Amino acid sequence: MKKKLWIPLLVSALTLMSLTANADYAKWTDPTHSFKADHTIYTSVVNTDVLSEKMAPEGRSFQVIFNQKAAEVKGLKIITAPLQGAIAVLPGNSTDDASAAAPSDEVSTSAVRIPQAAVDAKTDLYAVPTVTRCEKLVSVVPAHTEWTTKEIHETVRDKNGYKDVVHKIPFPEQIPEKQYVTMYLTVRFDVYSMKTGALVFTSEDARDRLDDSNFNGLFTRIVERFFKILKSEIN
To answer: What is the pTM of this model?
Structure first.
């Protein structure tokens, strides 16, 4: 009976250990939009409104990483906006409608608020990165007993002479309580046509990792994938 009690706990621990890194990715592209003529992209600041005051430093790091990765993209002109400026209003979808438009392919007619600087720069696309989830959750595996085997070696003598015999004896091992911290980060990217203001591309990258550090590594990989996929659409 004692043997059976620790099995679910061990399974939970193994499940947690297997979640070292996971990623879910989804995207939507307007089939009527031709990206071939799009060569210049204006990006807004990274929207980190979802972050708590305690996690404000993460938001500042995200902006630095995003600008660095934008500068590394070859073949496209990407203008990053460190500060919010004057707003121009174009017809099309708003960022609030992006997640709804992606799965259904339905286009809203609400206005898009685009910085005047993007209009003045005569860019082709306007991109809005938004952090929609950034948190750490703690999972606890309670203290429990795990049964292992202990080998006892013995030398015995029979009619054929001496030989080694190994006896395997069940041995209980006390495992202390352990906590696992899982990091969750989700970022959505909405890209609009500067000619029409319509949403033409949106993606969502959700990642988690069994760790208790900052989110820079996860965010870096998310941004790299965004620019890689958007560039493939354009090229």
So the answer is: 0.71
